[in-house]
Amino acid sequence: MTSDNPLNDRLDDDDYPAYTMGRAAEMLGTTPAFLRAIGEARLITPLRSEGGHRRYSRYQLRIAARARELVDKGTPIEAACRIVILEDQLEEAQRINAEYRRAASGSPAGGSGSGSRSGANAG
After folding, report:
1. Distances from the Cα of 27 to the Cαs of 58, 65, 68, 115, in angstroms?
2. pLDDT value, residue 116
3. pLDDT of residue 119
């Protein structure tokens, strides 16, 4: 297969909703109820298949895994979701700040892509 194959592009895309709820829960070592709970807490918003089933991206699974770590340590789920949202916002602000510093110093921007991810929702 070549890189011109659209399937390869989707498989390499961190935001492509490739995982069903059951598979996502299995990969995280949790239950579908946990995924529904973090969805209700608006930490992540899974996309829906044509049949209405939740589908998760690798990026969303990383967000969910971080929330699970906090919950496993005794943090209430609502607080864990808020912490993860704030961590995600801080990381994005630091990335933007670094881009501004590079631009101000005259260095080429380079580095990672631009824009916000759709995994951790702003509160």
Report:
1. 11, 9, 12, 27
2. 46
3. 61
d(CA 120, CA 82): 9
Structure tokens at 117: 């991810």
- Look up residue 75 and give its two tokens: 């943090």
pTM, entire model: 0.72
**Could you report the per-residue pLDDT of 59-70, keeping only the tens digit for each?**
999 999 999 999
Structural tokens at position 59: 């990026």
Compute the Cα dihedral for 91, 25, 79, 42 and give only its sign: positive
For 49, the 3-state DSSP assignment is coil
Give the Cα separation of 73 and 54 in Å (integer).
27
Distance of alpha carbon 30 from alpha carbon 45, whole angstroms: 17
DSSP count for the chain of H helices, then E strands: 5, 3
Query: What CA–CA distance (Å, rounded) separates 110 from 49?
Result: 35
Average pLDDT over residues 88-95: 96
